[in-house]
Amino acid sequence: MPRPIVARIHAAAMRHNLNVASRAAPRSKVWAVVKANAYGHGLARASRAFDAADGLALIEVDGALRLRDLGWRKPVLLLEGFFDESDLPELAAREIEFAIHCHEQIDMLEKARLDRQVDVHLKMNSGMNRLGFQPDQYRDAYQRLQAIPAVRSITLMMHFANADDPANAAMPVAEQIRRFDAASSGLEGRRSLANSAAVLGHPELAADWVRPGVMLYGGTPGGKTAEQFGLQPAMTLESEIIGVQRIRAGDAVGYGSRFVADKDMTIGVVAGGYADGYPRHAPAGTPVMVGGRRTRIVGRVSMDMITVDLTELPDAGFGSKVELWGRHIPIDEVAGAAGTIGYELMCALAPRVAVIED
Ligand SMILES: *Cc1c(COP(=O)(O)O)cnc(C)c1O
Fold it and tell me: In which residue ranges of the chain is pLDDT below 50?
């Protein structure tokens, strides 16, 4: 028998969430973002669940080729473009679109002398200061691309730093839009701007294409909870209680004896730990569901086990079902307790966890 920890992936929730994105941006086409193994949900599975999307976007070159092998015929986009010029002929042959964010990539594209045309997405650094051309270099880059015979189309692309926090004083959404509009005005091409936070929070910025990621998996991009946005969790991480300890006031639990009982308690041991992707930094008090009831973890998360408080759950014991996150315990709540975001927990689901689709 395998260990009792499993991740259930809810394909119907993924379809529902894609619909939420489409309804929020009714005049836009949708790139469903499936990087990082579809945020831990499985690339092949996501390509089926998102069959209504207009295209799939990701970071990994091998993943893009795999989507073609899986029979995905609609557009595929590499959000950071290619990393090595040796990839270019195959990307062109398999009709994979890619971002261009720096002059070095344009140099490679010029040299490649491709015999198939490509669709490129010219990225502007409109204030986030990660990838992209500065606004004052954008037109130059555009013209260099236009002069390459193998370039069939240029989409104008940027990314928001604070779409979940529009008033962020260091770089407000409005300032990024102002820079983008000024530097791209008059340039022909479709516009692609919005991640999940912008789709949900700024539908007026949806433009020609939107690029939702985390919302498709039922995670919140920030601002409100996933439930408030009408999103359904796409992953439930469940396990079972594999041991029970009755401890006395003053007894300590786990490595470092970080949790000391202030009364007599019943402790359940869950099969699952940081080697499964549960965050080691989750503190005592992080919510967990046992036998259908909400309780909390206590003590340090270890590699293969998590200890939980069963004191008020007299019906719980060996074999009780545990939900670490999912339909009842929002992944964002666990992430928040551990000082991170739902994105990271989804992506960190470990390969040793069995995955079941339901
Ligand atoms: C990851 C990514 C997205 C999706 O972001 P979410 O916050 O998950 O919606 C969109 N655009 C680009 C360029 C990305 O890298």
Answer: none
Strands 265-271 vs 235-247: parallel, antiparallel or unpaired? antiparallel
* Length of the chain, in residues: 358
What are the respective helix, strand and coil percentages of the chain, to the nearest 5? Answer: 30, 25, 45
Average pLDDT value for the chain: 97
First to last CA, the chain: 20
For ligand 1, the distance from its centroid to the CA atom of residue 97, given in whole angstroms, is 16
| Contact between 120 and 99 (Cβ < 8 Å) | yes
Q: For residue 157, how far is its CA from the centre of ligand 1 (angstroms)?
A: 12
Give yes or no: 255 in active site: yes
53 Cα–ligand 1 center, Å: 15
Q: Read out DSSP for 200-256?
A: HH-GGG--SEE---GGGGT---SSS-TTTTT----EEEEEEEEEEEEE-TT-EESGG
Contacts of 275 (CB under 8 A, 6+ apart): 303, 304, 350, 352
- The minimum-distance atom of ligand 1 relative to the CA of 211 is 10
Q: Which of 29, 35, 39, 274 is catalytic?
A: 35
pLDDT digit string (tens) for 102-146? 999 999 999 998 999 999 999 999 999 999 999 999 999 999 999
In the residue annotation, 224 being an active-site residue is answered as: no
